[in-house]
Amino acid sequence: MAGFRSLARQVRDPDCDLALRRYSLRKCLEKFAPYGHRATWDHLCSRAGFGPEDRSPDPARLVAALEELEEARDVWLAYETDFTERRKREKHDGLRRPGSVDDWHRLTWGGFGVAWCDDPRVHPRAPLAEVLRRLIAALEREPGTSCPVCDGERLVWRYGLDHEPSSGPVCTDCGILVPRPVLSPLALRHAGRDRQLTPA
Fold this sequence. Notes:
Blueprint: H1 4-12, H2 18-28, H3 37-48, H4 59-92, H5 100-107, H6 128-139, E1 155-158, E2 168-171, H7 185-192
Helix pairs in contact: 1-2, 2-4, 3-4, 4-6
């Protein structure tokens, strides 16, 4: 099975058939898709200027979409490297029990669904790398009361998400499932206040 870099080379290769180049970009999302496969694809298409169902997109637009995805992947891989080093230091110092950020991180290893968007048409508009930088910054500071990606304060608890965890606080402004560790207990209670009103 081809890795991310091999697929990226195919997307860039002008000698490859256009259909293969598009297919290779879609396959990259099996390796790294911060919003989930469908929402990340929709995001890349809209930012690069071609339709999700366009079978013959401009090759330059495919490469632009790939470049955005690669930049975001670099941001996430750097975070994962730092995370791994931190956990090694903590274990060396006798801290064996992981915290809530570590529990969340275990579910998102590799970058799939880091900022899960259950509705593939509702996702942040900012570049993927910027979204991940904001999310990482929030994971590294004290929990807050708003969405770390868009600063939206309209968080609603949703059930039946096509993700793990399958329920949690969703930002109604940008559509992401907000990681619980970045929200204060008060913000989590507020988001969960209307749980019975927002079933799956």
